[in-house]
Amino acid sequence: MITGAPRGVKDLLPKQTKQWHKVEAVIRQITREYGFEEIRTPIFEHSEVFHRGVGETTDIVQKETYDFTDRGGRELTLRPEGTAPTVRALLEHKLYAGPLPVKLYYVGPMFRFGRPQAGRLRQFHQFGIEVFGSASARVDAEVMAMAMDFYGRLGLTDLELLLNSIGCPTCRPGHREALQQFLAPKVGELCSDCQKRFEKNPMRILDCKNERCQELSQGAPTTVEYLCTDCADHFNEVKTLLDSAGVTYTLDDRLVRGLDYYTKTAFEIVSRQIGAQSSIGGGGRYDQLVETLGGPTTPGIGFGLGLERVLLTMENQGLLADDDQEQRDLFIATAGAGTAAVAFRLMQELRQRGMTVEMDYQGRSLKAQMKTADRFHVPRVMIIGESELAQGVVVLRTMSTSEQQTVPLDSVIAHLCGTAEPPMSV
RNA sequence: GCGGUUGUGGCGAAGUGGUUAACGCACCGGAUUGUGGCUCCGGCAUUCGGGGGUUCAAGUCCCCUCAAUCGCCCCA
């Protein structure tokens, strides 16, 4: 082997893709029921999209992006998240000019340069949704309800929805000032990251995981306390709606989240069962993002869910029992000159009628072919030998009972399919 | 980016300086005439992640490197 796959990326082998298909099927279904349509944006964008969209001060932009210069000298970045590209596409194609709100979803790979560990890859996959053009609290509630519905449909339990409101440009300056006043005497004791945050984005000190910082920020003014009436009303309505729909949540006034574009509602879904990387999804409202990227004032909200972490949680909750084995309808075994061509012809005709059929590729012994047939768990095996061919018949063996019957070659397809006619082509 | 642990055939796993690197599973083949699942027999690592060093001698010791894994940071 010359090299393995690069660090932090993984192949998904048949055993896994089978599981992914199940999750993807749920995504397809739930998005249809909630009225979302799919958007597929490129895997890379002009770096600018993320620098301005996600925010220069975020960890993602500062140290986790995959940046490169193409042969034309353009500064490009592999997408670390799905919201900024979606907004870019919204603007480029003027989707905001149509009926609002615009409800989009995406599924695909994202790239972040970090040290790999359980639940953290450099290429990972997200399922995300975005709603543009409505500032209504109903949309906030719907987005969160949908996320929880999604997990529920996959059978996941013991998840926690953390909820907070981090205000808007009207109320945030007041909070920021109060927070800086509160922390001013202790700045020197904060961790180095938080010392920088103190000036640039003091709010993020609230959810710093450093123990000392947590102690120092005990009793600090929370965003909720400084919400303007608009944000407060909005937040209350969101909670009321979630309550009425029976969506349980935990208020967390220190939840801030690492992307700069969030306003008002911020939420995160965590699982206690997948190691240190406990967040399996999160999102929030971003009422200024579209403007920031050069579009018209358009409120928005969305979530992004990590599919690897979802699968990991499912695995830990025993929801991935790989019960489905290889299942074929028929195996055709051959023995002797001229039999393979007949078998091949029959196999193709049967496949065109919808049966899953296999035959041997290497001209192995009948015994070896039977062994293979057994592994495919086929209910029946068609055996075509030289003597049968001479008589114009084939043998059909029922594996479970070892019973065999002889069927004329020219009626075996009708015998197996119930009709000799292939289905109408599409 | 930082710290801990680990790296032997497709997988699991013995082997703690000294002849031809256990074993289990999987896979392939065979057990008198063209037939599966059980059993039996046989095959399957010139090589121990990669590179360098120490030694008469290294899978076993040292260094570097790559990767995996767990944690920190952050987040999905």
Automatic annotation (TrEMBL):
What GO cellular component is one of the record's annotations?
Answer: cytoplasm
This protein's source sits in the domain of life called Bacteria
The EC number(s) this enzyme carries = 6.1.1.21
NCBIfam families assigned? hisS
Looking up HAMAP family in the UniProt record yields: His_tRNA_synth
Coiled-coil regions, chain positions: none
Q: Which residues bind L-histidine?
A: E81, G82, T83, R112, Q126, E130, R257, Y261, Y262
| Protein's organism | Heliophilum fasciatum
Family annotation (InterPro entries): aa-tRNA-synth_II, aa-tRNA-synth_II/BPL/LPL, Anticodon-bd, Anticodon-bd_dom_sf, His-tRNA-ligase, HisRS-like_core, HisRS/HisZ, HisRS_anticodon
Gene symbol of the encoding locus? hisS
* Family, similarity comment: Belongs to the class-II aminoacyl-tRNA synthetase family.
One of its Pfam families is tRNA-synt_His
**Gene Ontology MF terms in the entry:** ATP binding; catalytic activity, acting on a protein; histidine-tRNA ligase activity; transferase activity
Domain Aminoacyl-transfer RNA synthetases class-II family profile: from-to ranges: 1-322
Q: What is this protein called?
A: Histidine--tRNA ligase
Q: Which GO terms describe its biological process?
A: histidyl-tRNA aminoacylation
Description of how the protein assembles with itself and partners: Homodimer.
Q: Which UniProt keywords apply?
A: Aminoacyl-tRNA synthetase, ATP-binding, Cytoplasm, Ligase, Nucleotide-binding, Protein biosynthesis
Where is it located?
Cytoplasm
Q: Which CDD domains match?
A: HisRS-like_core (cd00773), HisRS_anticodon (cd00859)
- Please list the reactions this protein catalyses: tRNA(His) + L-histidine + ATP = L-histidyl-tRNA(His) + AMP + diphosphate + H(+)
Kindly report the protein's main subcellular placement as a broad class.
Answer: cytoplasm
